[in-house]
Write a structure and sequence with these properties.
By secondary structure, this protein is α+β, with helices and mostly antiparallel strands. It has one domain: Uncharacterised protein PF07273 family, DUF1439 (Bactericidal permeability-increasing protein, domain 1, Super Roll), CATH 3.15.10.40. The chain is about 30% helix and about 45% strand. The protein is built from 4 helices and 10 strands.
Length: about 190
């Protein structure tokens, strides 16, 4: 009897461990919700950066790297910050370097099968040593980039196994609550 209990316990532990690894990879399926954690979103961002953007017909470009994402427990918006470098006239030498911080909701986009920024707001731009004469140009570039990024690029792309599990469901709203991202689904 004792041997059977040990075998059953080991089998249940193995199943639980397998389930945990699946949750880390694709999000937790909780009936009518799929949840995503900060570490899942951060890993996806780490894989997709650095990014370079040419703007204004090549007269200016931005390089963004070192993304950092947090999901405050008491907020319905995530926080996202990046290192930023602005270059002018095709130069690889930045005219300004700094850090940008934004807050945003998230939305699901059926075209990219990903979670995109929704109504992002620039919370701060820190670019030490940037003269007043040049200050508006990098901010304008950041606003152009942010609108394009929110429209075109997911913060997180659903992986194939999760998409297969959701194929017969309708994806509804995406919310940020209690420190996690919740995607509501229905039959």
């Amino acid at each position: 009897m004792r041997k059977t209990a040990v075998v059953v316990s080991l089998a249940l532990a193995a199943l639980a461990m397998a389930g945990c690894s699946t949750l880390n990879a694709v999000g937790a399926m909780l009936g009518s919700q799929v949840t995503f954690t900060q570490p899942q979103l951060q890993r996806a961002l780490d894989r997709s950066f650095p990014k370079d953007y040419d703007k204004l017909g090549g007269l200016a470009s931005l390089r963004l790297d070192n993304p950092s994402l947090s999901i405050p427990y008491d907020s319905h918006r995530l926080r996202l910050s990046f290192n930023i470098a602005a270059m002018a006239l095709g130069s690889d030498v930045p005219i300004a370097r700094g850090r940008i911080a934004i807050s945003s909701g998230l939305r699901f986009d059926v075209q990219t099968l990903g979670l995109h920024l929704q109504d992002p707001v620039i919370e701060s731009i820190e670019m030490p040593g940037l003269g007043n004469a040049l200050k508006d140009s990098p901010i304008e570039l950041v606003n152009i980039w942010l609108a394009q990024y929110a429209r075109d690029e997911p913060v997180y792309r659903l992986d194939d196994s999760l998409v297969q599990r959701l194929v017969s469901r309708r994806i509804g709203s995406t919310e940020i609550e209690h420190g996690v991202v919740v995607m509501n689904v229905s039959q």
